[in-house]
Amino acid sequence: MQPIKMVDLHRQYLTIKEEINHAILSVLDSSEFIMGRVVSEFEHELSQYLGVQFAIGCASGTDALLVAMMAMEIGAGDEVITSPFSFVATAEAVALLGARPVYVDIDSRTYNINPSLISERITQKTKAIIPVHLFGHSADMEPILSLARANDLKIIEDSAQSIGAKYKNHFAGTLGDIGCLSFYPTKNLGAYGDAGVILTNNSSLAQRCRMITEHGSRVKYYHEMLGINSRLDSLQAAVLKVKLKHLERWTEARIRIAQRYTQALSGLGLILPYCAPCAKHVYNQYSIRTPRRDELAAFLKEKGLPYSIHYPFPLHEQPAFREFIDPGIRFPVTEAVTKEILSLPVFPELEDGEVDAIISSLRQFFQRSSS
To answer: Which residues are bridge partners to 279 per DSSP?
Structure first.
């Protein structure tokens, strides 16, 4: 057996090679590399799939967050509530605009922001809440939306890891004022480089977001506002347009693999991924928890099996955010999870024999330890 990878992008490419090559060659033949027709086609098809009115392509998921907040005029002196357990981009985008990320601890089952703790962190400076739909599972949006309405706050959903995930039959990223997606290559819908998209049903926000991605311009060389250069290029749009047709099939494969893990690993003393009854989990990551995480990681490494740790350091303990943290504040659930979490391979092309090998090694580790 070849070494198992955490994510095997080449294996996926081989399954759609003809479609991808044709799409890329079509862009090369058209020479419409920026703002080409294929970008508009992908935006339309994505908005149709997600049931949202506007999809505005941009250069990355990080830029999607930046552009969303710029469109809402979030900046110096403002506060934005979010999770301390996420990829750095969530809080980084807030800080880059001069605003202050304000953290709220996570739910111990979903690892998403705990809605019951949000209200105590709202101040007169609070402008928005960024719930992160982590690992492919949506945050508990209903109470978050209620809080936002009651306090006149904007909701920006960080759905970078959760395209296709659902909350009460609504797609993650479509419930708030704006949703932000990442198409980083390892995402469930991944480009062949960096790419992202902004989702909204608000025509005014959509117009502002599109202008911001094009240097604040609607008319060439006429700039109504300050913006940035963050356009989705045609080559990435062409790749994503092909891949979007396969997303549901890939999602179902991820769910099947996750179900196999859950069935086989139950009873070993692990905390396994949770899926709320109102949610559809799309498993960008299959993340388990154990107090013996570091021992398990060493064991898997010795066996030549892949794993990853998402995430080993909470955002409130990162040096980059030191100036934004109130001295002495703790987030106990987040801090416990960062010491115990470990992710297993769950990409759609993972073969049955590879899943068996991973399960067998995990069972060996825990059964040996308990004997």
So the answer is: 167
